[in-house]
Structures are given as C-alpha cells and as structure tokens.
Amino acid sequence: MKKITVWGFSWVPPVAQGLVRDLRVRWALEEAGLAYESRCIDTGERNSGDYRHKHPFGMVPVLESADGAMIESGAIVHAIAEQCEALMPADRRAETLGWMFTALNTVEPPLWNLFVMDVLHGEEAWVPLRRPAVVDEVNHRLAALSECLADRDYLLGRFTAADILMTTVLRFIRHTNLLARFPSLVAYVERCEARPAFDAALRNQLDGYARNEPVAA
Q1: Which DSSP category does 47 fall into?
Q2: Is 174 exposed, middle or buried (0-12, 13-18, 19+ CB in 10 A)?
Q3: What would the pLDDT profile of 47-71 be if each residue is shown by its tens digit?
Q4: Which of 12, 46, 112, 217 could form a disulfide with 16 if both were Cys (CB 3.0 to 4.6 A apart)?
Q5: Strand, helix or coil for residue 66
Q6: How far is CA 53 from CA 29, 43, 97, 120, 144, in A?
Q7: Sheet containing 36-41, strands listed edge to edge, beginning at the edge strand earlier in sequence
Q8: What's the gap between Cα 30 and its chain centre?
Q9: Closest Cα partner for 168 from 77, 83, 43, 82?
Q10: Under a CB-based contact definition with an 8 Å cutoff, are residues 172 and 19 in contact?
Q11: Which of 156, 140, 216 is nearest to 188 (CA)?
Q12: Quick one: angle between helices 93-101 and 73-81, nearest 10?
C-alpha cells in the first residue's frame, strides 16, 4: 500500500473517544510500519454525496490508497495484515483469520449492544428490562474467551491482527466492571494496549479530536 489516507470523524463525545473503529486501522498500519495521512469528516458531512461515494452508509473508517478505496474496519485490517508477516503469519493464516472473524462476529455484537444500551439509551424505560440478558450474554462470551486464552499472552500465542480486533472489541465495555471478573482478559488488554503501535494510533486519533473539539457556548 502507498499514499494511504485514513478517514475518521473530526470529533466524537469523550465517552466514544478511543472506541471509533478507525482506531483499528490506525493500529494495524502502525504495527505494519506503513505511513498514513489522517482525514476527517464531521457528522454533517456523513451524508454528503462526496462522502457517500467513499462509503455508501456514511460511516468510518475509509482507507484510500494508490490501490483504491476500502470500507469496513475488519476488511481493512485484513488487507493490511496480508502484507505484514507479523500480523498474518504465513503458517497460521487460517487460524489468524478465524480469530479475526471471531472478534467481529462472535464477541463484538453483545459487547456493542451493551455499550449502545448503556451509553446511548441508558435513560430509556426498556433498558433495565433488557440489560440483564445482554450482560449474561457478554459474560458468556468473556468466560469462553478467557478459557481460550488460558496461559497464552495472545490469541495465537504471538501478537497478530486478531489481537488488534479483539482488543478494540473488548474496549467497548470499558464503561463497566465486567472485564474485571476475568483477570486474564484484563492482563491481555493491558498487554496489547502497552504496545507502542497502539499508543501511536490512539494518540493520532485523540489528537484529531482535540484539534476539532467544539467551542463551548
């Protein structure tokens, strides 16, 4: 990949900062040692014709490069990993890919549902009725993931693109104490977030939000 541009939002509320999915793409690029430019849109631009041409649903991230444009964070991380042996080991490609899909299709849905309920709909009357079942589902996923990790530092024993996706998924419940019930998962997230590439990606995203923070009335 050459001449890479990553599109994200210009600003999001503090509760969502560090969670928007362009973080995954930035992290993968940092791990792969690929330089990139950051571009941003505000919420009013999401439905513009120009941006809808980049992403038909008006979402982020979008990655543009000399090879063309891509949408969907999982697909973008996969494309980056395919060019980086460290993120997608040739001898464990199928296993890495399996865990990438597990993060996005098995673990993320209930965790994202809980985040949406608590953060976006927390004051609505239906939430207390639905929340216990969602928490049970989250705990079920976390327990299974904890067993899978066992005594391994990373999902495959070594850091791969699967860990980028899984860690960013687990961050969706940082507003709760659910992860604390699983010390191995707490240690896993801390281990992944201690990587210099994660720190660089997070700073890149947060610096953009800081530059575009709305002026208080």
Answers
A1: T
A2: middle
A3: 899 999 999 999 999 999 999 999 9
A4: 12
A5: coil
A6: 24, 16, 29, 28, 40
A7: 36-41, 4-9, 62-65, 68-71
A8: 14
A9: 77
A10: yes
A11: 156
A12: 170
Tokens for 157? 């024993």
Structure-token pair, residue 51: 């941006």
- Among 94, 70, 185, which Cα is nearest to 139's? 185
Amino acid identity, residue 174? R
Long-range pairs, 34-37, Cβ under 8 A, ≥24: 34/1, 34/4, 34/80, 35/4, 36/4, 36/5, 36/6, 37/4, 37/5, 37/6
- Written as six digits, the tokens of 123 are 């004051």
Q: What is the percent of the chain with per-residue pLDDT over 90, rounded to a whole number?
A: 94
| Distance, CA of 144 to CA of 158 (rounded, Å) | 19
What is the predicted pLDDT for the residue at 217? 44
Instruction: Give pLDDT tens digits for 100-155.
Output: 999 999 999 999 999 999 999 999 999 999 999 999 999 999 999 999 998 899 99
Contact status, residue 146 vs residue 182, Cβ threshold 8 Å:
yes
Distance CA 43, CA 26 (A): 20
Residue keyed to tokens 């996969």: 78
Domains along the sequence of the chain with CATH: 4-86+197-211 (3.40.30.10), 90-195 (1.20.1050.10)
